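Fill in residues.
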């Protein structure tokens, strides 16, 4: 803390001097940090000079908090690398680097360097829901924007529990085929989805009968849930992701080609998944921390003052998950593909549902029920609990 104390008259005089010679020069002469002079100036503008002068300090207090050059540089460097971050996100990002800077200090530095908080009114608070584990629920949406006069479509698939982006695609036209491809690529890399939430867009939903995407989900035993019409809050997490990528990338860069935009989105997605702290996850975790089950370890490292940003990030994949559907049928998945064991051979789990002409009454194998034709294990407990085992590969 600095021992310097100023009365209101002195503060106002320093501000007037700053307007003539610049805030940094005036603050250097006064012996305080320029953010302090900026705070005084902002207060005078907000309440008027007379009211400012009337606010006499009743006691000496603790003095003016000093901001070190290191703190200032850390905040400005982080903001320069991540122009869409607010004060809280920058504070959290620095904590992951084992650097502690208060959110008030971060805000003061940012505001003195041109940052203005968004004046957008917060939306009415909706009832929040969240999946209880990775891959229990996915959310999917399509974001439209223009590259010059060319309209393009960004399809995003995220994990509800962790906000991790499982798959995406940038296209000039939407179709059921490309939407199916996005889901398939996400599952082949990260594991089997149990449920998918979408809106009622034509590629996701048909009013007359199930379209090809709905039939694909049924074949894959993925429960399909639709958001209520005219109620975007239901898809709140992927809608928030749409806003974030628009404000941080799409509206900040002028792309010349679809390929250029695709390359930039790929880099943004990697940063979002593995480096960007997420306010919805407590502020200190990235989506990858939660998706890959590292939350507790990361929080312990942060509390221990370890710079976790220097740790190597491997490509992790959810190799195995075990899913029970609404009918109590338990299915084993390997890299998103259903696998059953019959006579020591691995066969596609979907063969059972496709045939539909064999006896599905359970035969007892080690206390579990199984289809005698395809070997699919069935849950006989009636509990409806979903068992899941997920391994990771670096």
């Amino acid at each position: 803390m600095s021992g310097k104390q100023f009365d209101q008259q002195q503060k106002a005089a320093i501000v007037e001097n700053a307007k003539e010679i610049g805030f940094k020069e005036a603050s250097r002469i006064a012996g305080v940090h320029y953010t302090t002079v900026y705070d005084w100036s902002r207060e005078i503008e907000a309440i008027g000079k007379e009211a400012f002068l009337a606010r006499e300090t009743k006691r000496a207090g603790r003095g003016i908090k000093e901001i070190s050059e290191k703190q200032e540089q850390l905040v400005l460097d982080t903001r320069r690398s991540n122009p869409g971050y607010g004060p809280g996100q920058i504070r959290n990002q620095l904590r992951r680097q084992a650097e502690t800077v208060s959110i008030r200090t971060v805000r003061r530095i940012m505001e003195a360097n041109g940052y203005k908080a968004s004046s957008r009114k917060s939306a009415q608070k909706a009832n929040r829901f969240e999946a209880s584990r990775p891959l229990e629920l996915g959310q999917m949406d399509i974001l439209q924007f223009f590259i010059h006069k060319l309209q393009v479509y960004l399809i995003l698939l995220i994990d509800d529990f962790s906000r991790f982006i499982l798959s995406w695609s940038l296209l000039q036209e939407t179709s059921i085929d490309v939407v199916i491809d996005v889901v398939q690529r996400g599952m082949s890399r990260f594991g089997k989805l149990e449920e998918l939430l979408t809106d009622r867009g034509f590629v996701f939903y048909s009013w007359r009968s199930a379209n090809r995407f709905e039939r694909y989900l049924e074949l894959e035993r993925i429960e399909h849930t639709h958001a209520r019409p005219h109620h975007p809050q239901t898809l709140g997490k992927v809608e928030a992701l749409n806003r974030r990528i628009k404000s941080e990338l799409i509206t900040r860069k002028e792309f010349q080609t679809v390929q250029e935009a695709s390359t930039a989105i790929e880099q943004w997605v990697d940063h979002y998944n593995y480096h960007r702290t997420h306010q919805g996850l407590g502020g200190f975790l990235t989506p990858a921390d939660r998706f890959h089950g590292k939350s507790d370890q990361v929080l312990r490292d942060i509390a221990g003052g370890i710079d976790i940003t220097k740790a190597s990030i491997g490509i992790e994949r959810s190799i195995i998950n075990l899913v029970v559907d609404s009918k109590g049928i338990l299915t084993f998945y390997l890299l998103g593909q259903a696998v059953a064991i019959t006579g020591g051979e691995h066969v596609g789990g979907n063969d059972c549902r496709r045939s539909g002409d064999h006896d599905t009454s359970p035969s007892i194998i080690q206390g579990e029920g199984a289809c005698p034709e395809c070997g699919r294990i069935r849950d006989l407990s009636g509990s409806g609990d979903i068992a899941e085992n997920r391994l990771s590969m670096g």
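The CA atoms of residues 75 and 106 lie 6 Å apart.
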